[in-house]
Amino acid sequence: MSKIRNLLLVAVLICVTSLAPIPAQASSVSYYGALHVRGAQLVDKNDHAVQLRGVSTHGIAWFPEYVNAKAVKSLKDTFHANVFRIACYTDEYGGYCNGGDKKSLEKTIDTGVKAAEKNDMYVIIDWHVLNEHPNPLDHKSAAKKFFKKMSKKYAKYDNVIYEICNEPNSGTSWSDIKKYAKAVIPVIRKNAPDSVVIVGTPTWSQDVDKAVQSPLTYKNVMYAFHFYAGTHHDDYRKKLTDAYKNGLPVFVSEFGTCDASGNGGFNKKESDTWIELLDSMNISYVNWSLCNKAETASIIKSSCKKTSGWKKSDLTKSGKWLYETLRKY
Ligand code: IDC
Fold first, then answer.
1. What is the DSSP secondary-structure string of 234-253?
2. Are 125 and 150 in contact, with CB atoms under 8 Å apart?
3. Nearest CA-CA partner of 99 in 89, 86, 87
4. Is the CB of 204 within 6 Å of ligand 1?
5. Is 254 a catalytic residue?
């Protein structure tokens, strides 16, 4: 009898072990859980430092076809990205506040968020303030509505990060950005109280020094710092380093390997120098952009029509560099 019982026990044990989940990849949502901010550092559910590394879409009204489940899976499997940023322009072509098809933009965002969730990746919903209305206060009520909807929809998602204004510019002051943030952050917090929120900084998200002087008082807030390796060099690296040393939580939610126009030459040397610096401070970064537009920043060659499953030969110089950079970790 006890022999049979032992045999049964062994059988049960074998079953349990073979059903045990495969250990989560050590940089995914199931491993880190919901993120938050401690001092200058983005941390996981156990307060361990986290560095997110990934790719941003181009504007989703221009290139919605790259927001699909297989593309996101390719970013994870091929590029080893753990974050995907969805850039929803407020203005310009088909922008959310510029007569764009809101339903269709929201559907694209939803596809991206769900694909990221399925692939155990973090996802950034980016309210892409840039041209035409470079002061985020211009679209404050639209932004409140948008983020109310998004944060309600994704309240239970541990992987969603909200970026409330891509790049304020044209003299938009930090005090205006703060006014805007104070209107939008509470709307998000109502539905997703612990979510991480990235706030853009003046001068195309470069003036993190302004945020150091007068930070917001909410928890789990990070400040955007953007750079384009062809344009921004040592002065900007110093600006970022100083902000970090002053305890400011910074997120590089967008950078390019070329000049600030998205074009010009691909600059490997400066791009490598930047990544080395970001790594030394454990700062998260997201590359612009996932599309095949004939411009240097694009990671897919313009001759390649595939919207997922890319091979190395489908990638531009910038795409190959990103592939090699992300796979080093
Ligand atoms: C650029 C795109 C380009 C598009 C333009 C529209 O690469 O194809 O025509 O926007 O204004 C940013 C912005 C980002 C820019 C990018 C390159 O966040 O939207 O994309 N850039 O100029 N900040 C610095 C550079």
1. HHHHHHHHHHHHTT--EEEE
2. yes
3. 89
4. yes
5. yes
